Amino acid sequence: MILFVAFVGLLVAAIVNSDDPFHPQFHPGPATHWMNDPNGPMYYQGNYHLFFQYNPTGPNWGDMSWGHIISKDLAHWHHLPVALSPDMAYDKRGVFTGSTTILDDGTPVIVYTCVNSGQQQCVAYPANKSDPFLTNWTKPDYNPVIKDPPPGGVAGSFRDDTTAWKSGGSWKLVVGASINGHGAASLWDSKDFKTWTYVHPLYTTTQYGMWECPDFYPLHDSKNTYALKYSAGGRDWYTLGSYDESKQVLVPSGNATLFDYGHVYASKRFYDPVKKRQIFYGWVSEEDKGGSQRGWQGIQTLPRSLTLDSDLAIVLSTPVDELASLRKTGTSMKNVQLAAGQTMPLKGVSGLQLEIEANFTFDKAAASQRFGISVRMSLDGSMRTDILFVHQNMTGPMNNTDLPGDEYRQFPYKVGNTEEANIALCKETCDNETKCVAWTYVRKGDPVVPRCSLKNGIPHLNPNKFCVSGIKRTNMSETTFMVDRSKTGGDGNQGSVQAPLPMKSGEETVTIRAFVDHSIIESYAQGGRAVITSRVYPDASADGVALVNYGSQPINAASVQVWPMNNCWV
Fold first, then answer.
1. Exposure string (b/e) for 385-423, b if CB count within 10 Å is 16 or more?
2. How far apart are CA 177 and CA 196, in angstroms?
3. Which residues are catalytic?
4. Cβ distance 80 to 69 under 8 Å?
5. pLDDT single digits (tens) 288-325
6. Other Cβ atoms within 10 Å of 449 Cβ, number
7. Which of 128, 161, 295, 469 could form a disulfide with 400 if both were Cys (CB 3.0 to 4.6 A apart)?
């Protein structure tokens, strides 16, 4: 078996190391065919395991199975044979997303969504739990263990099991659901991990009609804060709060927030008992037209450690430290001065596999600053992706996109009102409500009836013909993190993405960290306060790196480090 596994690993590594200019080389994922959601990550007998939704027969979605890779250090990976296949009557239409749980006796068990006529929940156990590779799994004859959705639920919208946990002497499990038309984290209870009873929603809101890939876990802070995560609307959201074990509900302490403002979905996390941390993976799908023709689609994010910043009440998401073992000899620079409007290519620095970290100083009193790094840059600068810190002192209305996340109330206008009257009413309403910090007037056409959105946060600058925004008081500032793909090149998505970037009092240094791996760019600001994952598909010759300053005053890059990165496949 060990020789066979080694042979499979070498064969797949050879495929991954092909000349495909778009296939990431140090991100975990299959060399060929289709991949989507991460499944069942865990640590077991010296190995980190990552499963994922996989089509072993082709580069498009179908024949959903569980692919399987392992690592000793979360940086170097081996491929293993497919772990679960749709080979039973109850899962012949797909082995969908799920999680792993370590039982009290140390046995790992997979809980997954088994699909035939509807969506049910099934389990699988290792054929030999002394095998550290866990290459063979068996499905007991009492499957499915959960046959019906919760009351008010829909059989075709009931999927994606979480890792189970113990509470009140029994196992608890959450499954994504639609209950009475609302997205919900449905809670289930079992004494023996065989017979499960529905309890009620652990948490639900009226936002979105179905929650996929829920997750629920502690962040190990002094206040015992929990995070409830769900995937909806093409994004991954989390809500922080406390876990009321007597009532078995999440008591939220804030609004839903995005883990990643870029192109990440269906994430899954696990608790690492070695370093006592929560580790996150997310699915990054393709954003160009050539995926199926290349013979593969989809990749996983780098493993990220999740921690709580209690001062800002946000989850910090940072690449695990072990990724430093993939670095080659790097380049370092200090005190690099950038003039206003300057683009400075870094001489001798290029590549399609890079880690970059740059520390800048900024002036809070400046009217506007916009600086950062350019990657995947062509020699003439015509192709590039900009990763930018944006700081603006705002004093009045501005054209803006009505981004979700900060609004606490919105209302429509009477048909026939003039636009001037609508804007004035929106502003006046905000001025009269203590909770309101900013307002956005959404014009007729998006949707048909215009509306006013009242916000408890400052909206993000991003021009949009349908929206006008304003802030309640003058001399307020906004800091955002941005990835600009307008000059990326290729046929992928060339839209820009912005994320709110909270800054703490007295901070005058900005840290931007980026991982460039062929067609994927993971960008982090201020130690993971803002994260944006992007797909780009420029010509392979666009491999340069530059420091950029689009502002009207000089900027100092206090330090810049760039490391070429090795492949992750052993």
1. bbbbbbbbebeeebebbbbebbbeeeeebeeeeeeeebb
2. 16
3. 37
4. yes
5. 989 899 999 999 999 999 999 999 999 999 999 999 99
6. 12
7. 469
